[in-house]
Amino acid sequence: MAKRHRTDGRPTIAQIAQIAGVSVPTVSKVLNDRTDVALPTRERVERVIEEYGFVRNRAARALRKGKTGLVDLILPRLDDEYYLPILEGVAQVLREAGVRLVLTSTNYQPEQEVQWIDTDTDHSTDGILLVLPSDEAIEHLERSGLPFVLIHNQGGPRSGIPSVTITSWEGGFVATTHLISLGHRRIAYIGKTAAAIDAIERLAGYRAALDAANLPLDPQLQCAGNFTEADGYTATRALLELPEPPTAIFAGNDRQAAGVYRALHELGMTVPGDMSVIGFDNLPYTEIMNPPLTTVHAPRLELGRTAAAALLRLINGEALDMTRVVLPTEFIERQSCRPLSLEKEAN
Questions:
Q1: How are strands ordered across the β-sheet holding 70-75?
Q2: Any idea what DSSP says for residue 286?
Q3: Is 129 in contact with 312 (CB distance < 8 Å)?
Q4: Could you tell me the strand order of the sheet in which 248-251 lies?
Protein backbone atom coordinates (compact mmCIF):
# COMPACT_ATOMS: atom_id res chain seq x y z
CA MET A 1 0.00 0.00 0.00
CA ALA A 2 1.41 3.39 -0.94
CA LYS A 3 2.49 5.64 1.88
CA ARG A 4 0.20 8.63 2.25
CA HIS A 5 2.12 11.86 2.41
CA ARG A 6 0.88 14.69 4.57
CA THR A 7 0.98 18.30 3.53
CA ASP A 8 0.18 21.45 5.51
CA GLY A 9 -3.57 21.10 5.26
CA ARG A 10 -5.52 19.63 2.37
CA PRO A 11 -3.63 20.09 -0.94
CA THR A 12 -5.28 22.26 -3.52
CA ILE A 13 -6.19 21.30 -7.05
CA ALA A 14 -3.26 23.43 -8.27
CA GLN A 15 -0.84 21.45 -6.09
CA ILE A 16 -2.23 18.13 -7.30
CA ALA A 17 -1.85 19.36 -10.91
CA GLN A 18 1.78 20.36 -10.31
CA ILE A 19 2.68 17.01 -8.71
CA ALA A 20 0.96 15.03 -11.48
CA GLY A 21 2.47 17.18 -14.21
CA VAL A 22 -0.88 18.16 -15.70
CA SER A 23 -2.99 21.29 -15.94
CA VAL A 24 -5.51 22.45 -13.32
CA PRO A 25 -8.43 21.94 -15.76
CA THR A 26 -7.30 18.33 -16.26
CA VAL A 27 -7.44 17.67 -12.50
CA SER A 28 -10.87 19.34 -12.38
CA LYS A 29 -12.06 17.04 -15.16
CA VAL A 30 -10.88 13.99 -13.25
CA LEU A 31 -12.57 15.19 -10.05
CA ASN A 32 -15.76 15.87 -12.00
CA ASP A 33 -15.70 12.40 -13.63
CA ARG A 34 -15.39 13.88 -17.11
CA THR A 35 -14.72 11.36 -19.89
CA ASP A 36 -12.49 13.59 -22.03
CA VAL A 37 -9.28 12.67 -20.16
CA ALA A 38 -6.91 10.02 -21.51
CA LEU A 39 -6.87 6.89 -19.36
CA PRO A 40 -3.11 7.04 -18.50
CA THR A 41 -3.48 10.68 -17.47
CA ARG A 42 -6.57 9.93 -15.40
CA GLU A 43 -4.78 7.07 -13.62
CA ARG A 44 -1.76 9.27 -12.87
CA VAL A 45 -3.93 12.01 -11.38
CA GLU A 46 -5.92 9.46 -9.37
CA ARG A 47 -2.68 8.02 -7.94
CA VAL A 48 -1.51 11.47 -6.83
CA ILE A 49 -4.91 12.22 -5.30
CA GLU A 50 -4.77 8.97 -3.33
CA GLU A 51 -1.13 9.33 -2.32
CA TYR A 52 -1.42 12.88 -1.05
CA GLY A 53 -4.68 12.37 0.79
CA PHE A 54 -6.67 14.84 -1.29
CA VAL A 55 -10.30 14.95 -0.14
CA ARG A 56 -12.57 15.42 -3.11
CA ASN A 57 -14.81 18.43 -2.71
CA ARG A 58 -18.40 17.30 -2.43
CA ALA A 59 -19.59 20.05 -4.71
CA ALA A 60 -17.09 19.03 -7.37
CA ARG A 61 -18.31 15.42 -7.16
CA ALA A 62 -21.82 16.66 -7.78
CA LEU A 63 -20.92 18.30 -11.08
CA ARG A 64 -21.79 15.32 -13.21
CA LYS A 65 -24.21 14.90 -16.08
CA GLY A 66 -26.82 17.64 -16.16
CA LYS A 67 -24.54 20.25 -14.57
CA THR A 68 -22.73 23.00 -16.45
CA GLY A 69 -19.83 23.45 -14.03
CA LEU A 70 -20.54 27.21 -14.12
CA VAL A 71 -21.63 29.65 -11.40
CA ASP A 72 -22.71 33.25 -12.01
CA LEU A 73 -21.64 36.18 -9.83
CA ILE A 74 -23.65 39.34 -10.44
CA LEU A 75 -22.06 42.52 -9.06
CA PRO A 76 -23.39 46.09 -9.10
CA ARG A 77 -20.08 47.30 -10.61
CA LEU A 78 -16.77 45.81 -11.73
CA ASP A 79 -14.69 48.95 -11.07
CA ASP A 80 -15.62 49.32 -7.41
CA GLU A 81 -12.85 48.42 -4.95
CA TYR A 82 -15.42 47.37 -2.34
CA TYR A 83 -16.48 44.37 -4.41
CA LEU A 84 -13.03 43.12 -5.44
CA PRO A 85 -12.35 41.07 -2.27
CA ILE A 86 -15.84 39.56 -2.55
CA LEU A 87 -15.00 38.54 -6.10
CA GLU A 88 -11.66 37.09 -4.99
CA GLY A 89 -13.29 35.12 -2.16
CA VAL A 90 -15.84 33.63 -4.54
CA ALA A 91 -13.14 32.82 -7.09
CA GLN A 92 -10.98 31.06 -4.49
CA VAL A 93 -13.74 28.69 -3.40
CA LEU A 94 -14.94 27.93 -6.92
CA ARG A 95 -11.39 27.38 -8.14
CA GLU A 96 -10.80 24.87 -5.34
CA ALA A 97 -13.99 23.07 -6.36
CA GLY A 98 -13.15 23.02 -10.07
CA VAL A 99 -16.08 25.27 -10.90
CA ARG A 100 -15.80 28.11 -13.39
CA LEU A 101 -16.98 31.63 -12.58
CA VAL A 102 -19.09 33.76 -14.90
CA LEU A 103 -18.97 37.44 -13.94
CA THR A 104 -21.27 40.29 -14.89
CA SER A 105 -22.28 43.73 -13.59
CA THR A 106 -25.59 45.58 -13.49
CA ASN A 107 -24.43 49.16 -12.84
CA TYR A 108 -27.02 49.28 -10.04
CA GLN A 109 -29.85 48.81 -12.56
CA PRO A 110 -32.54 46.38 -11.28
CA GLU A 111 -33.70 45.68 -14.82
CA GLN A 112 -30.20 44.43 -15.67
CA GLU A 113 -30.34 42.05 -12.70
CA VAL A 114 -33.68 40.67 -13.82
CA GLN A 115 -32.56 40.36 -17.45
CA TRP A 116 -29.48 38.36 -16.44
CA ILE A 117 -31.46 36.11 -14.11
CA ASP A 118 -34.04 35.42 -16.81
CA THR A 119 -31.23 34.54 -19.21
CA ASP A 120 -29.83 32.06 -16.68
CA THR A 121 -33.12 30.23 -16.26
CA ASP A 122 -32.32 28.28 -19.45
CA HIS A 123 -29.99 26.26 -17.19
CA SER A 124 -26.84 27.84 -18.59
CA THR A 125 -25.57 28.02 -15.00
CA ASP A 126 -25.71 25.81 -11.91
CA GLY A 127 -26.30 28.66 -9.48
CA ILE A 128 -26.23 32.41 -8.92
CA LEU A 129 -24.51 34.69 -6.41
CA LEU A 130 -26.07 38.15 -6.41
CA VAL A 131 -24.62 41.16 -4.57
CA LEU A 132 -27.03 43.85 -3.35
CA PRO A 133 -30.06 42.43 -5.16
CA SER A 134 -33.25 44.40 -5.62
CA ASP A 135 -36.56 43.00 -4.36
CA GLU A 136 -37.59 42.37 -7.97
CA ALA A 137 -34.43 40.38 -8.61
CA ILE A 138 -35.04 38.26 -5.51
CA GLU A 139 -38.56 37.46 -6.68
CA HIS A 140 -37.22 36.34 -10.06
CA LEU A 141 -34.57 34.21 -8.35
CA GLU A 142 -37.20 32.48 -6.23
CA ARG A 143 -39.23 31.66 -9.33
CA SER A 144 -36.21 30.52 -11.34
CA GLY A 145 -35.71 27.26 -9.47
CA LEU A 146 -31.94 27.80 -9.55
CA PRO A 147 -29.81 27.59 -6.40
CA PHE A 148 -28.81 31.10 -5.29
CA VAL A 149 -27.23 32.99 -2.41
CA LEU A 150 -27.54 36.72 -1.76
CA ILE A 151 -24.70 38.93 -0.54
CA HIS A 152 -25.65 42.21 1.16
CA ASN A 153 -29.39 42.20 0.57
CA GLN A 154 -30.76 45.70 -0.07
CA GLY A 155 -34.10 44.96 1.57
CA GLY A 156 -34.89 43.42 4.94
CA PRO A 157 -33.95 39.82 5.71
CA ARG A 158 -36.36 37.30 4.21
CA SER A 159 -37.08 34.07 5.99
CA GLY A 160 -35.59 31.01 4.33
CA ILE A 161 -33.64 32.88 1.64
CA PRO A 162 -29.90 32.03 1.64
CA SER A 163 -27.89 35.16 2.32
CA VAL A 164 -24.60 36.37 3.76
CA THR A 165 -24.13 39.81 5.31
CA ILE A 166 -22.18 41.63 8.05
CA THR A 167 -22.87 43.03 11.52
CA SER A 168 -23.50 46.59 10.37
CA TRP A 169 -25.56 47.54 13.44
CA GLU A 170 -22.76 46.49 15.78
CA GLY A 171 -20.23 48.31 13.63
CA GLY A 172 -22.24 51.52 13.82
CA PHE A 173 -22.73 51.14 17.56
CA VAL A 174 -19.04 50.51 18.29
CA ALA A 175 -17.86 53.40 16.08
CA THR A 176 -20.23 55.88 17.72
CA THR A 177 -19.46 54.58 21.22
CA HIS A 178 -15.75 55.13 20.52
CA LEU A 179 -16.39 58.80 19.74
CA ILE A 180 -18.52 59.15 22.85
CA SER A 181 -15.74 57.62 24.95
CA LEU A 182 -13.41 60.33 23.61
CA GLY A 183 -15.72 63.00 25.00
CA HIS A 184 -17.64 63.92 21.84
CA ARG A 185 -21.27 64.83 22.34
CA ARG A 186 -22.22 66.36 18.99
CA ILE A 187 -21.58 63.46 16.61
CA ALA A 188 -22.90 63.59 13.04
CA TYR A 189 -23.81 60.66 10.83
CA ILE A 190 -23.72 60.83 7.02
CA GLY A 191 -25.67 58.41 4.83
CA LYS A 192 -29.15 58.10 6.34
CA THR A 193 -30.84 57.92 2.93
CA ALA A 194 -28.76 55.02 1.55
CA ALA A 195 -31.24 52.25 0.71
CA ALA A 196 -29.27 49.10 1.56
CA ILE A 197 -30.18 47.30 4.78
CA ASP A 198 -26.52 47.54 5.87
CA ALA A 199 -26.74 51.35 5.71
CA ILE A 200 -29.99 51.36 7.67
CA GLU A 201 -28.41 49.17 10.34
CA ARG A 202 -25.36 51.45 10.63
CA LEU A 203 -27.63 54.42 11.27
CA ALA A 204 -29.59 52.37 13.82
CA GLY A 205 -26.36 51.45 15.60
CA TYR A 206 -25.36 55.13 15.69
CA ARG A 207 -28.70 56.12 17.18
CA ALA A 208 -28.60 53.28 19.71
CA ALA A 209 -25.15 54.35 20.94
CA LEU A 210 -26.31 57.93 21.45
CA ASP A 211 -29.42 56.72 23.25
CA ALA A 212 -27.37 54.43 25.50
CA ALA A 213 -25.23 57.43 26.48
CA ASN A 214 -28.34 59.56 27.10
CA LEU A 215 -27.35 61.94 24.31
CA PRO A 216 -30.01 63.72 22.22
CA LEU A 217 -30.75 62.55 18.68
CA ASP A 218 -30.34 65.82 16.81
CA PRO A 219 -31.95 65.49 13.34
CA GLN A 220 -29.63 68.20 12.01
CA LEU A 221 -26.68 65.89 12.64
CA GLN A 222 -28.19 63.00 10.68
CA CYS A 223 -27.37 63.81 7.09
CA ALA A 224 -28.79 62.49 3.85
CA GLY A 225 -26.48 60.83 1.39
CA ASN A 226 -25.60 57.67 -0.45
CA PHE A 227 -22.23 55.99 -0.25
CA THR A 228 -20.30 58.47 -2.42
CA GLU A 229 -17.45 60.90 -1.83
CA ALA A 230 -19.58 63.74 -3.19
CA ASP A 231 -22.29 63.11 -0.60
CA GLY A 232 -19.70 63.10 2.19
CA TYR A 233 -18.33 66.40 0.93
CA THR A 234 -21.75 68.06 0.58
CA ALA A 235 -22.96 66.88 3.97
CA THR A 236 -19.79 68.12 5.70
CA ARG A 237 -20.09 71.59 4.20
CA ALA A 238 -23.69 71.74 5.43
CA LEU A 239 -22.77 70.48 8.90
CA LEU A 240 -20.10 73.15 9.30
CA GLU A 241 -22.65 75.87 8.55
CA LEU A 242 -24.79 74.88 11.55
CA PRO A 243 -24.87 77.31 14.49
CA GLU A 244 -23.40 74.48 16.58
CA PRO A 245 -21.37 72.20 14.27
CA PRO A 246 -20.42 68.67 15.28
CA THR A 247 -17.03 67.84 16.75
CA ALA A 248 -17.00 64.37 15.18
CA ILE A 249 -18.40 62.76 12.02
CA PHE A 250 -19.24 59.10 11.52
CA ALA A 251 -19.40 58.55 7.75
CA GLY A 252 -21.52 55.65 6.52
CA ASN A 253 -18.62 54.38 4.43
CA ASP A 254 -15.00 55.20 3.61
CA ARG A 255 -15.86 56.98 0.38
CA GLN A 256 -18.01 59.43 2.28
CA ALA A 257 -15.18 59.83 4.78
CA ALA A 258 -12.87 60.82 1.90
CA GLY A 259 -15.40 63.51 0.99
CA VAL A 260 -15.40 64.67 4.61
CA TYR A 261 -11.61 65.00 4.49
CA ARG A 262 -11.79 67.03 1.28
CA ALA A 263 -14.37 69.47 2.66
CA LEU A 264 -12.40 70.00 5.87
CA HIS A 265 -9.17 70.54 3.92
CA GLU A 266 -10.78 73.20 1.74
CA LEU A 267 -11.90 75.06 4.85
CA GLY A 268 -8.46 74.90 6.45
CA MET A 269 -9.57 72.46 9.13
CA THR A 270 -7.55 69.46 10.27
CA VAL A 271 -8.31 65.85 11.16
CA PRO A 272 -8.40 65.11 14.04
CA GLY A 273 -7.44 68.56 15.40
CA ASP A 274 -10.68 70.24 14.36
CA MET A 275 -12.81 67.19 13.57
CA SER A 276 -12.66 63.52 14.47
CA VAL A 277 -13.73 61.22 11.61
CA ILE A 278 -14.67 57.55 11.36
CA GLY A 279 -15.52 55.61 8.20
CA PHE A 280 -16.83 52.14 7.44
CA ASP A 281 -15.55 49.26 5.22
CA ASN A 282 -11.75 49.55 5.66
CA LEU A 283 -11.00 50.08 1.98
CA PRO A 284 -7.27 49.78 1.09
CA TYR A 285 -6.63 53.51 0.68
CA THR A 286 -7.81 54.35 4.23
CA GLU A 287 -4.38 53.36 5.58
CA ILE A 288 -2.67 56.04 3.48
CA MET A 289 -5.17 58.86 4.00
CA ASN A 290 -3.74 61.84 5.87
CA PRO A 291 -4.16 61.00 8.70
CA PRO A 292 -4.94 57.26 8.36
CA LEU A 293 -8.67 56.78 8.81
CA THR A 294 -10.26 55.05 11.79
CA THR A 295 -12.88 52.76 10.31
CA VAL A 296 -14.91 49.56 10.65
CA HIS A 297 -13.57 46.54 8.78
CA ALA A 298 -16.08 44.69 6.60
CA PRO A 299 -14.88 41.08 6.01
CA ARG A 300 -15.41 41.18 2.27
CA LEU A 301 -13.13 38.28 1.35
CA GLU A 302 -15.01 36.06 3.80
CA LEU A 303 -18.32 37.31 2.44
CA GLY A 304 -17.36 35.93 -0.96
CA ARG A 305 -15.93 32.67 0.38
CA THR A 306 -18.89 31.99 2.67
CA ALA A 307 -21.48 32.73 0.00
CA ALA A 308 -19.71 30.59 -2.60
CA ALA A 309 -19.36 27.65 -0.19
CA ALA A 310 -23.07 27.87 0.65
CA LEU A 311 -24.02 27.95 -3.03
CA LEU A 312 -21.91 24.88 -3.78
CA ARG A 313 -23.75 23.00 -1.03
CA LEU A 314 -27.09 23.99 -2.54
CA ILE A 315 -25.93 22.89 -5.99
CA ASN A 316 -24.94 19.57 -4.42
CA GLY A 317 -28.44 19.18 -3.01
CA GLU A 318 -27.31 19.64 0.59
CA ALA A 319 -29.22 21.57 3.23
CA LEU A 320 -27.57 24.64 4.76
CA ASP A 321 -26.86 24.73 8.49
CA MET A 322 -28.38 28.22 8.48
CA THR A 323 -29.89 30.24 5.65
CA ARG A 324 -28.74 33.67 6.88
CA VAL A 325 -25.09 34.04 7.85
CA VAL A 326 -23.93 37.27 9.52
CA LEU A 327 -20.16 37.84 9.62
CA PRO A 328 -18.62 40.07 12.32
CA THR A 329 -17.16 43.50 11.60
CA GLU A 330 -14.05 44.79 13.39
CA PHE A 331 -13.27 48.27 14.66
CA ILE A 332 -9.94 49.56 13.27
CA GLU A 333 -8.48 52.42 15.29
CA ARG A 334 -6.03 54.69 13.48
CA GLN A 335 -5.21 58.40 13.77
CA SER A 336 -8.35 60.26 12.66
CA CYS A 337 -9.94 60.63 16.12
CA ARG A 338 -8.78 62.38 19.28
CA PRO A 339 -10.18 63.08 22.74
CA LEU A 340 -12.27 66.25 22.89
CA SER A 341 -10.69 68.79 25.21
CA LEU A 342 -12.86 70.47 27.83
CA GLU A 343 -12.04 73.84 26.31
CA LYS A 344 -13.17 72.76 22.84
CA GLU A 345 -16.37 71.24 24.25
CA ALA A 346 -17.12 74.46 26.13
CA ASN A 347 -16.64 76.51 22.97
A1: 100-105, 70-75, 128-131, 148-151, 163-166, 324-327
A2: G
A3: no
A4: 222-223, 187-190, 248-251, 276-278
- What stretch of H or E contains 302? helix 300-315
- Looking at domain 70-166+300-327, its CATH architecture is 3-Layer(aba) Sandwich (3.40)
What residue spans define the domains of the chain? 13-56, 70-166+300-327, 168-298+332-346
Q: What is the pTM of this model?
A: 0.78
C-alpha dist (Å) from residue 261 to 176, 258, 276, 285, 301 = 18, 5, 10, 13, 27
Instruction: Please indicate whether the domains covering 13-56 and 168-298+332-346 agree at the CATH topology level.
Output: no
Each of the 347 residues of the chain gets a pLDDT tens digit; together they read 333 344 445 567 777 888 888 887 787 777 766 677 888 888 888 888 877 766 555 444 444 445 788 999 999 988 899 999 999 999 999 999 999 999 999 887 777 777 777 775 556 789 999 998 888 888 888 888 889 999 987 655 566 899 999 999 999 999 999 999 999 999 999 999 887 888 999 999 999 999 999 999 999 999 998 889 999 999 999 999 999 999 999 999 999 999 999 999 999 999 999 999 999 999 999 999 999 999 999 999 999 999 999 999 999 889 898 889 999 999 999 999 999 875 455 44
Topology, domain 13-56: 434 Repressor (Amino-terminal Domain) (1.10.260)
